[in-house]
Amino acid sequence: MTLTVLNVQTANQRANSHKSDTMYTATSSPDISLCDNVSLAEKTDLLPSNAKIGIKNSRIEFATTEKAIPLRIKDDNGNVFKPNTEIPFSVENEHCAGKAILKLKTEQPSKYEPYFAGKKRQFEIQIQGKFKNVGENDRVYIGIETDSEVKLNFLTRTFSKVILKLIHATTANVNATLGDRESAAQMTMPLHSTVDKLAVTRPNEQTPEMGVAEFQDDVSIAKCDRPKCFTYNTEDTYSFSQHGMYVNLVSWKLVNLPGLPDISLNKFLGESKLYYVCYILPENHTGKHLSKDKNYLFRFELENDNSLACKK
Description:
Elements: E1 4-10, H1 11-15, E2 22-27, H2 40-44, E3 52-56, E4 59-64, E5 71-74, E6 80-81, E7 89-92, E8 96-104, H3 113-116, E9 123-131, E10 139-146, H4 154-170, E11 175-177, E12 186-190, H5 191-194, E13 197-201, H6 226-229, E14 237-244, E15 247-248, E16 253-254, E17 263-264, H7 266-269, E18 274-281, E19 295-304, H8 308-311
Antiparallel strand pairs: 1-2, 2-4, 3-4, 5-6, 5-19, 7-8, 8-9, 9-14, 10-12, 10-18, 11-12, 13-14, 15-16, 16-17, 18-19
């Protein structure tokens, strides 16, 4: 008898709730087969260690108490990726080709749990790839943006303006705005000066391993050395990582704010979508960072079940 896993569905999909178990459903019917010669023992080896097996109406069901991460990553082509995977997901468009991993601090165990232990960090993203077209002195920015001007009430707008003034006063070359009729809300900074680790690998050299705790210092260019030695080209491979401690993408909240409680991102985003972006602007660009002027290396929509954008 052939055992075939037909689908993996969450209880959220069955009952519109994120708090239930994940359900793995299989069939023992010899008339329905997607893969041959798979034994029950072999199939259960692929399931989580806390999976429970039951048989109902000739169907074999595997239930696990592991809670699904409510965040998904979507690219502009509609591809959906999961965080905390060991295998990088592909990043490719007309401007770049590469791969990425998004690590999140979660309640459930993962390979990346030691990376977050004892730290306030909530996430880290690792990117590795090559430019398909870039000028030597073009400017590359990385950060977050929305798909529209954010609609804030008086209190949140006042609070946001205070934060933006502080950011502009303490951070060089930052592009930060709440948006207007022309541009979306965004906060981005030059890639070479803001990412935590940055390595440039020449052709025929070994690139840093992806999925490690973090890129090692011996392959990363120190931040203080980057402005005087950094240019872009289409031959080298660029590997970089960026972490953050103030945004919990799992709970969809701002956290670790001095003297303040955790605040839902919905208070600032409303129904706007949130994107993690990296884009190129020409060397001589001045003025606002408008979408029409940007060549996006990547533009990842961060889609969370708790966001108003998902619920509308």
